[in-house]
Design goal:
The complex is a heterodimer of chains A (538) and B (313). With 538 residues, chain A is α+β, with helices and mostly antiparallel strands. Chain A contains seven helices and 19 strands. The chains are: A alpha+beta (538), B alpha/beta (313).
């Protein structure tokens, strides 16, 4: 193995040497030529170049020979060392031997190693493996422990990061949370049931695919009444190697519009999503498609633009399965930066366009009425986040202010289906075409007042607009779509034992179910995570 | 299609020009370096001189384990030609996001534009197994390698090789700065070890297990940590246990890195009547430790001072 790689390394090094000679020759001529008139290098210049090339070749040959003897020597040392280590297990744990001799071969190798890297990048891996440091590593920890936590059988570097996040709740509410939200088209947004329930149990796998791609998948098991439903929450690849700040993502993923939209439930600061997300996205905007992002090459400011083009199979779209034309498009821009050492901020503007295409989206308004909506939805979002911590050290105290504003414009027409003769509509009634603008926002503050403890407050407000979706007043027997401007006040207190475990108490007063239906809520929540834990976004 | 690409290219050129004009400087003149922590920033500046432009992602008051992938970091990483990290999982909670979101292919792990200092030194305290109940343990070993100045020699040599690889036209410049650094550093190490002689064998408590390399360098004997597990704040009950141990088997001082809240160390310092030393830990860790050399100079000065204090009481 070693002899083979040695031969390979030698030829490789020689090739790269020649390449670098060529390159440096070019560089040389480029440097020398401007002294004379272009294109008329004198014979003396050429001779000089020739001479310096010869010198360089000699130098590199000598260097390669020296390095090779060194590598052979190291291999011998290496095998001796690994034998020693095998006989004396646990050497790595003892503090003294390595650090006391800073200039032993171990420590002296790296510069040479990187010299080889400079000469022949491809060969560096093999050299790295021959370093005694790695050997003691391997012997001290026979089971490679990956990314904190799980001990996995050795599958080398292809082992993906695996993590499992568990989320459970207890809730007591003064109203039935399954009642529809008043004033807004039913979005299918899930509510937290009363009593004990399991939230999303999330199994995530992520890793680099090769030098150009990275892939990530998140599977979610969640309680569905008395059963369990299994869903693919995200499954996407993204590029690592596009030039000029571009990045491409494909598959199923959380859209990057807004601020909270691509945050996973365990990253939320409250048990539930803001009302605006529930009303306008039916939760979080998550779809299958492609995304392009670009980061501007600015020094002091973060500026990113992006867009997504997706199939659009759920709210605010309709079912768009097996159709040629994707019906969900988004555009977003984000900017951000620091204010001194203690504060940082990010703001964004987003646009979402969704259409139901030629398939109406049907929603249940009441036991006797359903409503089929056809049309388009344009959503504009402005979001802002500000974070503060003394000297940027968030471990003792920190503050986070966050808000998002939504403008939701709907243009379309509806068909009301009634199973009983009620109001003015009997069977199927076709409404006038309509357009309606709805608004909503939330603003929240989270303050960590001492290590492990955070308190938070959130205010939610929605404005339904005045449309009854093209039907005259009284035509619909159910009150679901009648105009209503609900709000919600939420406070929470959470205790974070480590990055991996959290308990939360949340109290809320929510008027979104309609006039006279104030829902007073108490939630208790835990979040536990095991396995690798990926870094969190800002 | 071709014309489209052409127009895009022209647009980009025009835009870059306007950008250059706007900022009044050539954005690509120097080698842009993104250092995760101040010590590598200082080292890169020393080894790169005027050919590099160094951005340091954190300040000394911040806990390098817990940094947020702030927008400004992504912006800086976008333009970096070289990211210098400690490695050994120190930056695992934030750097991967910054690398990925930067859209900068040359600083991805495995590329020449990504440099991990910990790869060039022998790591200590490599755990036999890792379990989260042990706290914030790093599977690859203790990442606080900068607390031993001898570690900087192999790292500097490797870093210079990397600078030359990325910016070969300035090879001579980098080589010269490295030679200067190495001869100066070797001399300083000699002087430091002379100065630090009295510290040999001195028994110490560490609040966080951040100093195994410094202990090995100065011959300090660390008898334990105030944190029950790495990264976990000690409770009063646990500190009381520590105090009992201190009474039975005393240490001369308590060492704390300046980025940590030193209240546990102060508590023990009062109860046990031994000095608590706030060590700078990195460049900028206190007002005097404003260069790499001063970091170690100041560390020894503070330790010696604490030793004197301990004798006095």
């Amino acid at each position: 193995m070693f002899s083979l790689s040695l031969v390979g390394r030698r030829s490789c090094a020689v090739v790269i040497c020649l390449l670098s000679l060529l390159l440096s020759a070019q560089g040389l001529s480029a440097q020398t030529l401007p002294n004379t008139t272009p294109g008329s290098a004198s014979a003396a210049d050429l001779a000089k170049i020739q001479e310096s090339l010869n010198q360089m070749r000699d130098y590199y040959e000598k260097r390669i020979n020296a390095l090779e003897t060194k590598v052979e020597k190291l291999q011998k040392q290496n095998s001796q060392l690994s034998q020693q280590v095998q006989t004396r297990s646990g050497i790595a744990a003892s503090a003294t031997p390595a650090a006391v001799q800073p200039l032993t071969p171990t420590q002296a190798t790296p510069p040479d190693k990187s010299a080889i890297v400079a000469l022949a990048g491809a060969a560096s891996d093999t050299v790295t493996q021959t370093s005694p440091v790695e050997v003691s590593n391997k012997n001290a920890a026979p089971n490679p422990t990956l990314a904190r936590g799980i001990v996995l059988p050795k599958i080398g570097v292809v082992t993906p990061e695996i993590s499992l996040i568990l989320d459970g709740k207890f809730s007591s509410q003064s109203q039935n949370p399954e009642l529809p939200m008043r004033g807004f088209l039913p979005s299918g947004s899930g509510n937290i049931p009363r009593g004990f329930s399991l939230g999303e149990s999330e199994l995530a796998l992520a890793g680099t695919v090769d030098n150009l791609f990275r892939a990530e998948a998140r599977f979610v098991m969640s309680q569905n009444e008395n059963g369990t439903s299994f869903a693919v929450e995200e499954a996407f690849f993204e590029t690592l190697g596009l030039p000029e700040g571009f990045k491409l993502k494909g598959g199923k993923y959380f859209s990057e519009v807004g601020y909270l939209n691509n945050k996973h439930p365990h990253e939320w600061d409250f048990v539930d999503l803001p009302l605006a997300y529930q009303a306008f996205f039916g939760g979080q905007l998550n779809n299958t498609g492609v995304q392009v992002k670009w980061v501007a090459p600015l020094e002091d400011m973060y500026l990113r633009f992006g867009g997504e083009y997706a199939q659009g199979g759920s709210y605010p779209n309709s079912n768009n399965y097996n159709q040629n034309k994707p019906l969900l498009g988004t555009l977003f821009a984000k900017a951000g930066g620091d204010i001194g050492v203690s504060s940082s901020w990010q703001g964004g503007l987003s646009f979402v366009r969704a259409s139901t295409g030629n398939r109406a989206r049907s929603s249940v308004l009441s036991d006797t009425e359903t409503f089929d909506y056809s049309g388009s939805t344009n959503i504009y979002i402005a979001d802002f986040v500000y974070k503060w911590a003394p000297f940027g050290n968030a471990s003792q105290q920190n503050l986070k202010l966050q808000g998002e504003f939504f403008w939701n414009t709907q243009n379309g027409s509806g068909v009301l289906n009634s199973t009983v003769a009620s109001g003015d509509c009997n069977a199927a009634c076709i409404g006038d075409s309509f357009s309606n603008t709805q608004k909503g926002f939330y603003a929240q503050a989270i303050y960590q007042f001492m290590p492990k403890w955070r308190i938070g407050y959130r205010y939610d407000q929605l404005y339904s607009g005045s449309s009854t979706y093209g039907f005259a007043p009284g035509m619909m027997s159910s009150a679901t779509l009648e105009p209503w401007n609900p709000n919600r006040n939420t406070v929470m207190l959470d205790w974070v034992n480590s990055e991996y475990s959290m308990f939360r108490l949340q109290l809320a007063r929510d008027t979104s179910l309609g006039p006279g239906l104030v829902n007073n809520q108490v939630f208790l929540q835990y979040i536990m995570s095991i396995g690798a834990h990926g870094a969190h976004r800002y | 299609m071709k014309s489209l690409f052409k127009s895009i290219a022209t647009l980009r050129c025009a835009w870059l020009f306007s950008l250059t004009a706007l900022t009044g400087q050539n954005v690509w003149a120097e080698l842009n370096i993104f250092a995760t922590v101040p010590e590598w920033g200082a080292l890169a500046q020393q080894l790169g001189g005027d050919q590099v432009k160094v951005f340091v992602a954190t300040v000394a008051q911040q806990d390098p384990h817990h940094i947020q992938a702030r927008p400004s970091l992504i912006a800086r990483a976008r333009n970096a030609k070289l990211v210098i990290a400690t490695g050994a999982e120190l930056e695992i909670g934030w750097l991967p996001i910054v690398q990925r979101d930067s859209g900068n292919r040359s600083i991805q792990t495995g590329q020449p534009g990504y440099f991990e200092a910990a790869q060039y030194v022998t790591l200590l305290d490599i755990p036999k197994s890792v379990d989260r109940s042990m706290g914030d343990v790093h599977a690859e070993g203790n990442p606080h390698i900068q607390t031993d100045p001898r570690n900087l020699l192999p790292i500097a040599k490797a870093l210079t090789a990397r600078l030359i690889e990325l910016d070969p036209s300035q090879a001579q410049h980098y080589q010269l700065l490295l030679e200067r650094f190495v001869s100066d550093w070797e001399e300083r190490i000699k002087q430091w070890s002379l100065r630090a002689k009295p510290l040999e064998g001195v028994r110490v408590w560490a609040q966080h297990d951040g100093f195994p390399y410094m202990n090995a360098w100065l011959g300090l004997t660390q008898i334990g940590t105030l944190e029950p597990r790495p990264g976990v704040e000690p409770s009063i009950a646990y500190l009381t246990e520590v105090l009992q141990r201190q009474k039975k088997d005393p240490a001369r001082m308590i060492i704390v890195a300046s980025y940590l809240s030193d209240s546990p160390a102060k508590w023990l310092s009062e109860k046990a009547a031994i000095p608590a030393v706030n060590l700078p830990f990195t460049v900028g860790g206190n007002t005097k430790a404003n260069t790499l050399a001063m970091l170690y100079e100041e560390t020894i000065t503070l330790l010696l001072k604490a030793l004197e204090q301990g004798k006095g009481s």
